[in-house]
Structures are given as structure tokens and as C-alpha cells.
Amino acid sequence: MLRILLVEDDPDVAFVVSALLESADFHVTVASDGQQGLEIAMQERPELIITDFMMPVMSGLDMIGRLRAQGYERPIILCSAVAEESMQRDRYLYDVFLLKPYRSEELMSAIDRVRTKPGP
Predict the structure, then answer these.
(1) Is 60 exposed, middle or buried (0-12, 13-18, 19+ CB in 10 A)?
(2) Alpha carbon of 24 to those of 35, 37, 68: distances in Å?
(3) Which of 46, 62, 90, 104 could form a disulfide with 5 if both were Cys (CB 3.0 to 4.6 A apart)?
């Protein structure tokens, strides 16, 4: 069972996405901001992280940068209502970008893509 960390500050989005992932037989842990996500990721080492970009306390990109600096090499999906072009300098940090709002099919397709990538 794939262990996913979902980092999302909107409780409604977190509820819907985690329910979708759990119905697909994934084990989901939810964090409500980047700092909490960073702490959980370093402790639990999930096989995949799905994170929002704009969040209180610490942004998704800041969290990803810190994780990568600490050797976290597993796949990360970054989601945002902000166009990806504004994040080009940090593009190397994450594996897939999803523009919000995304459809459930887009999320599941992104998960399939990162699961088939060779990795550690």
C-alpha cells in the first residue's frame, strides 16, 4: 500500500482528496501546513508527497526545498492555483505540477506517472 503525505491547508480540499486516495487503497497522512508536512515527511518518509504551494507557516516549495536538502528523493506532486511558469526557477524540486482546481483523474494520472519513475 502506497504511503502518501498530503499537505493541504484547506480542510475541505484535504478531506476530499484524502477520501479519494483512500478509496484507491492508498494510506494517507494529512498535514495542514508546510512546517507540519516537513516534520511528518522526515519522520515517516512517505513514498509520495502531494502538496499545495500557498500555505500558512511554510509554503509547499519551501517545504520541498528543505526536504530535498535533507536527502528526500521520493516523488513530490506540487499543486497550485498559481501558474507553473511563476515557479520555473524551482522546477527541479518537484516531479509533477497540477494546476488547481484539478480533476480526480488528473491526480490519479500524476500518481501513476511518478510511481512508474525509477527512484531510490
Answers:
(1) buried
(2) 27, 22, 27
(3) 46
Query: Between 3.30.310.50, 3.40.50.1110, 3.40.50.2300, 2.60.120.560, what CATH number should domain 3-113 receive?
Result: 3.40.50.2300
For residue 87, the model assigns a pLDDT of 61
Instruction: Give the global pTM.
Output: 0.91
pLDDT at 89 (0 to 100): 62
Encoded amino acid at 106, one letter: E
